[in-house]
Every structure is written in structure tokens, then in C-alpha cells.
Amino acid sequence: MTKTLFLLTVFTAVCSGQTPPTTLAAATPGDKLPGMGGFLQRWLLLDPIPVTGLTDSAVQATVKKDAYANLLQTMPTGGQKLSIDGAELTWHAMDTRNYNVNLYHFARTLGKKTSDILVWAVTVVHAPRDLENVRLAIGSNSASVWWVNGQEVIGIYGDRQTVIDDGVSRRLTLKKGPNVIRAAIVNGGGATDFCARLLDANDKPLSGLLIRLKDDSPVK
């Protein structure tokens, strides 16, 4: 869906007195399997943060600010609060019904800005054994930067639509047990969302994974 069509749908619903639909809900207890096509459908999302700029230099400068350094080093939990630049922010454990995570719905439900925002996202994927030659495949509207187990693996930039596998990382090794995937999504205006999945050595959706947000082991 284009940004124009998306906003027209929301505008029509508001004018008719309806509540625009949402594809997100609070995460249910227990582990979660990846969805159809291997998409990761459970994430911890931090309250939107106002930012500007979608170029690679602007986005990189934004996500590498000292104020966000701790976000790349600690594992959050749902409901956890923190302060960044004097603003109190909350982590939300969310499930999406679709392959993608609709950040417009997320921000609007919280009564936050939906444009010119940065949203941090974290999930934990548990592998049954060490898995080699894995690739993280992502799409986002608009720019985004991604980390796996503390290493930056991919970034896409500019005012773009979410396209499945729009960006694909180099070959990675997932270790047996928990693997932390983090993302910083920066939107300019209109609709905003992201999608992510893990591909095997043959570029097929990786099987045998579990998504478990609570992780008591050291963060890598």
C-alpha cells in the first residue's frame, strides 16, 4: 500500500467515526514461531522518538548518538521505562498479525507522532544449534539500520516503501540459543512499517527457530 492510499484509508475511517484498524496486539505469553514465510512477528518496540533526516549520513548520525548507546548493550523487557534526552520512554512487547510491523498503528495507538520519528525494535531468536550461512533479510518504510548479536549487518536509506527482502545481510552464523536482533527504523512521513526474516544457506526461510523475548543470558 502506498503512503497516499494508506493515509486516505485512515482519513476515511476517522471522518466516518470509525477507529482505524490496527494489526498489532500485546504479545501473548510463551514462545512464538516465525509466521508464514519465516517473518518475525514478535518485537519489543520503544516509544517513537522525534527525529529528521533519511539519508545514510543523517540516519547513521542519529542512531549512533551517545544517548542511544545503551540501547545496543542491554536487553529490554516489556513495560520497562527509561529516560532519553529528558523524555520518559516505554518498551512495548507486541505481536503483529501480518508479515510486517505497522509502526503507524503503533505510534497512533500511543497518541504519538507518526511522522519524522525513530522507533527502536528488538527481538530474540532462539536457534536449536549453531546455524551457518544465515542472512537477515529486511524491508522498511523508510530508512533502517540492523544489528545481529551486537554487530551492525545492514542499513537501507531514503524515502522508500517496505519491500520484502529489500536489504539482505552478508552471511552470518547464528549461535545455538538466543540471538538478539535489533533495528532502528526512521520514518519521514505517512505510512511506516518494517519486516524481517532469516534465510538459510539456500536463501529459503530458516526453520526451527523460536522467538522468545525474555532472555536471562548475557546480551551479545
Description:
The protein has a single domain (about 25-210), classed as Jelly Rolls, CATH 2.60.120. By secondary structure, it is mostly beta strands. Residues about 1-20 and about 215-220 have low confidence and may be disordered. The N and C termini lie far apart (about 35 Å). Helices cover about 15% and strands about 40% of the residues. It has helices spanning about 5-15, 55-65, 105-110; strands at about 25, 40-45, 50, 80-85, 85-95, 100, 115-125, 130-140, 145-150, 150-155, 165-170, 170-175, 175-185, 195-200, 210. Strands 1, 2, 3, 4, 5, 7, 9, 10, 13 and 15 form a ten-stranded antiparallel sheet that branches.
CATH topology heading? Jelly Rolls
Helical residues, percent: 10-25%
Indicate the radius of gyration in whole angstroms.
17 Å
Q: What is the tally of beta strands?
A: 15
How would you classify the helix and strand content by structural class? mainly beta
Structurally, the number of domains stands at 1
Looking at the structure, what is the overall shape?
Answer: globular
- List the uncertain runs: 1-19, 216-220
Terminal-residue CA separation: 36 Å
Residue fraction in strands: 35-45%
- Count of helical regions: 3
CATH class: Mainly Beta
On the 0-100 scale, what is the average pLDDT?
90
- Written as H for each helix and E for each strand, in order along the chain, the element string is HEEEHEEEHEEEEEEEEE
The major beta sheet can be summarized as: 10 strands, antiparallel
Write the CATH architecture name. Answer: Sandwich
